[in-house]
Amino acid sequence: MKVLLIDDHPLILSALQSVIQGLGSHVSVIGVGSARATRETLKRDSDFDLVLLDLHLGDADGFELLAELRSSYPALPVVVVSASDRASDVIRAIDLGAMGFVPKRASNETLFEALHMVMSGGIYVPPMTLGSERRAEKPEGDTVPSVLHVVGQSALDSGFQTQPALDAIGLTPRQTEVLALLLQGQPNKMIARELGLSVETVKDHVAAVLRALGVSSRTQAVLAVSQMSQQSGGFAAWRKSK
Predict the structure, then answer these.
(1) How does pLDDT run across 222-231, given as a tens digit for each residue?
(2) CATH number of the structural domain spanning residue 232
(3) 216 to each of 13, 224, 228, how far by Cα in Å?
(4) What is the pTM of this model?
Protein backbone atom coordinates (compact mmCIF):
# COMPACT_ATOMS: atom_id res chain seq x y z
CA MET A 1 0.00 0.00 0.00
CA LYS A 2 1.36 3.38 -1.03
CA VAL A 3 0.36 6.34 1.16
CA LEU A 4 0.82 10.09 0.66
CA LEU A 5 0.89 12.19 3.86
CA ILE A 6 0.26 15.94 3.63
CA ASP A 7 1.04 18.02 6.73
CA ASP A 8 3.04 21.25 7.05
CA HIS A 9 4.21 20.50 10.60
CA PRO A 10 7.49 18.53 10.37
CA LEU A 11 7.16 16.79 13.74
CA ILE A 12 3.58 15.65 13.09
CA LEU A 13 4.49 14.59 9.56
CA SER A 14 7.39 12.51 10.87
CA ALA A 15 5.24 10.97 13.61
CA LEU A 16 2.47 10.06 11.17
CA GLN A 17 4.98 8.52 8.80
CA SER A 18 6.28 6.28 11.58
CA VAL A 19 2.77 5.29 12.65
CA ILE A 20 1.59 4.44 9.13
CA GLN A 21 4.81 2.59 8.36
CA GLY A 22 4.03 0.51 11.43
CA LEU A 23 1.13 -1.07 9.56
CA GLY A 24 3.62 -3.42 7.93
CA SER A 25 6.43 -3.91 5.44
CA HIS A 26 3.91 -3.78 2.59
CA VAL A 27 3.30 -0.08 3.31
CA SER A 28 5.37 2.69 1.75
CA VAL A 29 4.89 6.27 2.89
CA ILE A 30 5.78 9.57 1.23
CA GLY A 31 5.38 12.80 3.21
CA VAL A 32 5.01 16.33 1.84
CA GLY A 33 4.55 19.63 3.66
CA SER A 34 2.54 21.79 1.27
CA ALA A 35 -0.15 21.89 -1.38
CA ARG A 36 2.48 22.74 -3.97
CA ALA A 37 4.55 19.69 -3.07
CA THR A 38 1.39 17.59 -3.19
CA ARG A 39 0.64 18.67 -6.75
CA GLU A 40 4.23 18.09 -7.84
CA THR A 41 4.36 14.65 -6.24
CA LEU A 42 1.09 13.49 -7.80
CA LYS A 43 2.08 14.92 -11.17
CA ARG A 44 5.22 12.77 -11.12
CA ASP A 45 3.45 9.71 -9.74
CA SER A 46 -0.27 9.43 -9.02
CA ASP A 47 -0.13 5.72 -8.21
CA PHE A 48 -1.08 6.07 -4.54
CA ASP A 49 -3.60 3.97 -2.65
CA LEU A 50 -4.44 6.56 -0.01
CA VAL A 51 -3.92 10.21 0.91
CA LEU A 52 -3.91 11.56 4.48
CA LEU A 53 -4.55 15.30 4.44
CA ASP A 54 -4.17 17.96 7.14
CA LEU A 55 -6.65 20.82 6.71
CA HIS A 56 -4.30 23.56 7.89
CA LEU A 57 -1.53 24.09 5.33
CA GLY A 58 0.71 27.11 5.00
CA ASP A 59 0.15 27.62 1.28
CA ALA A 60 -3.46 26.52 0.77
CA ASP A 61 -6.81 25.96 2.39
CA GLY A 62 -7.11 22.26 3.18
CA PHE A 63 -10.74 22.06 2.10
CA GLU A 64 -9.87 23.59 -1.26
CA LEU A 65 -7.04 21.11 -1.73
CA LEU A 66 -9.40 18.28 -0.79
CA ALA A 67 -11.86 19.37 -3.47
CA GLU A 68 -9.01 19.66 -5.97
CA LEU A 69 -7.72 16.16 -5.20
CA ARG A 70 -11.18 14.62 -5.47
CA SER A 71 -11.71 16.35 -8.81
CA SER A 72 -8.30 15.55 -10.32
CA TYR A 73 -7.90 12.05 -8.83
CA PRO A 74 -11.45 10.75 -8.19
CA ALA A 75 -10.30 7.15 -7.62
CA LEU A 76 -7.81 8.17 -4.91
CA PRO A 77 -9.35 8.01 -1.40
CA VAL A 78 -8.55 10.93 0.88
CA VAL A 79 -8.74 10.79 4.68
CA VAL A 80 -8.60 14.07 6.59
CA VAL A 81 -6.38 14.04 9.69
CA SER A 82 -7.03 17.26 11.54
CA ALA A 83 -6.56 19.00 14.89
CA SER A 84 -10.21 20.01 14.56
CA ASP A 85 -13.07 17.70 15.44
CA ARG A 86 -15.90 20.18 14.94
CA ALA A 87 -18.99 18.59 13.45
CA SER A 88 -19.14 21.33 10.82
CA ASP A 89 -15.62 20.47 9.63
CA VAL A 90 -16.44 16.76 9.52
CA ILE A 91 -19.59 17.43 7.50
CA ARG A 92 -17.82 19.77 5.09
CA ALA A 93 -14.97 17.31 4.52
CA ILE A 94 -17.34 14.41 3.82
CA ASP A 95 -19.44 16.65 1.58
CA LEU A 96 -16.30 17.47 -0.45
CA GLY A 97 -15.56 13.78 -0.93
CA ALA A 98 -13.30 12.74 1.97
CA MET A 99 -13.60 9.05 2.79
CA GLY A 100 -12.74 9.60 6.43
CA PHE A 101 -12.05 12.16 9.13
CA VAL A 102 -9.68 11.36 12.01
CA PRO A 103 -8.90 13.90 14.76
CA LYS A 104 -5.18 14.16 15.55
CA ARG A 105 -5.94 13.48 19.20
CA ALA A 106 -7.18 9.98 18.23
CA SER A 107 -5.18 6.92 19.22
CA ASN A 108 -3.06 4.91 16.80
CA GLU A 109 -5.64 2.12 17.08
CA THR A 110 -8.40 4.50 16.00
CA LEU A 111 -6.33 5.66 13.04
CA PHE A 112 -5.68 2.06 11.99
CA GLU A 113 -9.39 1.28 12.33
CA ALA A 114 -10.26 4.28 10.18
CA LEU A 115 -7.75 3.37 7.47
CA HIS A 116 -8.92 -0.25 7.43
CA MET A 117 -12.52 0.89 7.05
CA VAL A 118 -11.67 3.26 4.21
CA MET A 119 -9.50 0.74 2.37
CA SER A 120 -12.39 -1.73 2.69
CA GLY A 121 -14.68 0.71 0.91
CA GLY A 122 -16.29 2.32 3.94
CA ILE A 123 -16.31 5.84 5.36
CA TYR A 124 -15.00 6.71 8.82
CA VAL A 125 -16.03 9.65 11.00
CA PRO A 126 -15.19 10.01 14.72
CA PRO A 127 -17.97 8.98 17.15
CA MET A 128 -16.82 11.51 19.77
CA THR A 129 -17.38 14.45 17.43
CA LEU A 130 -21.12 14.09 17.42
CA GLY A 131 -21.67 13.62 21.10
CA SER A 132 -19.21 16.31 22.13
CA GLU A 133 -21.46 18.95 20.56
CA ARG A 134 -23.88 18.21 23.40
CA ARG A 135 -21.28 18.89 26.08
CA ALA A 136 -20.15 22.32 25.05
CA GLU A 137 -21.71 25.38 23.53
CA LYS A 138 -21.59 25.18 19.75
CA PRO A 139 -19.14 27.58 18.07
CA GLU A 140 -20.84 30.44 16.27
CA GLY A 141 -21.87 29.44 12.78
CA ASP A 142 -21.47 25.73 13.48
CA THR A 143 -24.57 24.02 12.10
CA VAL A 144 -25.29 20.38 12.82
CA PRO A 145 -27.99 18.37 11.00
CA SER A 146 -30.64 16.82 13.24
CA VAL A 147 -29.37 13.31 12.52
CA LEU A 148 -26.07 14.20 14.18
CA HIS A 149 -27.88 15.27 17.33
CA VAL A 150 -29.79 11.97 17.32
CA VAL A 151 -26.67 9.86 16.78
CA GLY A 152 -24.71 12.03 19.17
CA GLN A 153 -27.32 11.72 21.92
CA SER A 154 -27.37 7.95 21.51
CA ALA A 155 -23.59 7.89 21.79
CA LEU A 156 -23.71 10.18 24.82
CA ASP A 157 -26.36 8.10 26.57
CA SER A 158 -24.35 4.92 26.04
CA GLY A 159 -21.00 6.36 27.02
CA PHE A 160 -19.88 6.37 23.38
CA GLN A 161 -19.74 2.58 23.35
CA THR A 162 -22.56 1.80 20.91
CA GLN A 163 -24.32 3.40 17.96
CA PRO A 164 -27.81 2.86 16.52
CA ALA A 165 -27.76 -0.36 14.49
CA LEU A 166 -28.26 -0.48 10.73
CA ASP A 167 -30.51 -3.49 11.28
CA ALA A 168 -32.96 -1.25 13.12
CA ILE A 169 -33.78 0.94 10.11
CA GLY A 170 -35.36 -1.92 8.14
CA LEU A 171 -34.10 -1.34 4.59
CA THR A 172 -35.27 -3.64 1.81
CA PRO A 173 -32.61 -5.45 -0.28
CA ARG A 174 -33.11 -2.96 -3.14
CA GLN A 175 -32.87 0.02 -0.80
CA THR A 176 -29.64 -1.45 0.60
CA GLU A 177 -28.24 -1.63 -2.95
CA VAL A 178 -29.25 1.98 -3.56
CA LEU A 179 -27.66 3.06 -0.27
CA ALA A 180 -24.39 1.29 -1.15
CA LEU A 181 -24.15 3.26 -4.41
CA LEU A 182 -25.27 6.45 -2.70
CA LEU A 183 -22.40 6.07 -0.23
CA GLN A 184 -20.01 5.90 -3.20
CA GLY A 185 -21.25 9.33 -4.28
CA GLN A 186 -23.10 8.01 -7.32
CA PRO A 187 -25.78 10.36 -8.75
CA ASN A 188 -29.28 9.03 -9.39
CA LYS A 189 -28.64 8.51 -13.11
CA MET A 190 -25.60 6.31 -12.43
CA ILE A 191 -27.48 4.35 -9.75
CA ALA A 192 -30.33 3.80 -12.21
CA ARG A 193 -27.92 2.55 -14.86
CA GLU A 194 -26.09 0.28 -12.41
CA LEU A 195 -29.28 -1.33 -11.09
CA GLY A 196 -31.29 -1.30 -14.32
CA LEU A 197 -33.97 0.98 -12.89
CA SER A 198 -35.63 4.19 -14.02
CA VAL A 199 -34.36 7.46 -12.55
CA GLU A 200 -37.78 8.08 -11.00
CA THR A 201 -37.69 4.70 -9.27
CA VAL A 202 -34.22 5.46 -7.93
CA LYS A 203 -35.45 8.81 -6.61
CA ASP A 204 -38.22 6.98 -4.75
CA HIS A 205 -35.71 4.53 -3.26
CA VAL A 206 -33.32 7.33 -2.23
CA ALA A 207 -36.19 9.20 -0.57
CA ALA A 208 -37.17 6.03 1.28
CA VAL A 209 -33.58 5.48 2.45
CA LEU A 210 -33.30 9.05 3.73
CA ARG A 211 -36.61 8.69 5.57
CA ALA A 212 -35.48 5.41 7.12
CA LEU A 213 -32.27 7.06 8.33
CA GLY A 214 -34.16 10.13 9.55
CA VAL A 215 -32.05 12.51 7.45
CA SER A 216 -32.66 14.99 4.67
CA SER A 217 -29.52 14.87 2.54
CA ARG A 218 -26.94 12.48 1.12
CA THR A 219 -24.18 13.95 3.28
CA GLN A 220 -26.22 13.36 6.42
CA ALA A 221 -26.88 9.81 5.23
CA VAL A 222 -23.15 9.15 4.81
CA LEU A 223 -22.45 10.41 8.32
CA ALA A 224 -25.32 8.48 9.86
CA VAL A 225 -24.40 5.19 8.16
CA SER A 226 -20.75 5.63 9.11
CA GLN A 227 -21.75 5.99 12.76
CA MET A 228 -24.21 3.10 12.64
CA SER A 229 -21.94 0.68 10.81
CA GLN A 230 -18.78 1.10 12.89
CA GLN A 231 -20.06 -1.41 15.47
CA SER A 232 -20.59 -4.06 12.76
CA GLY A 233 -17.23 -3.68 11.02
CA GLY A 234 -18.43 -1.29 8.35
CA PHE A 235 -21.28 -1.09 5.85
CA ALA A 236 -19.73 -3.71 3.56
CA ALA A 237 -19.56 -6.25 6.40
CA TRP A 238 -23.15 -5.46 7.38
CA ARG A 239 -24.33 -6.02 3.79
CA LYS A 240 -22.64 -9.40 3.63
CA SER A 241 -24.47 -10.48 6.77
CA LYS A 242 -27.86 -9.89 5.16
Answers:
(1) 777 777 766 5
(2) 1.10.10.10
(3) 37, 11, 17
(4) 0.66
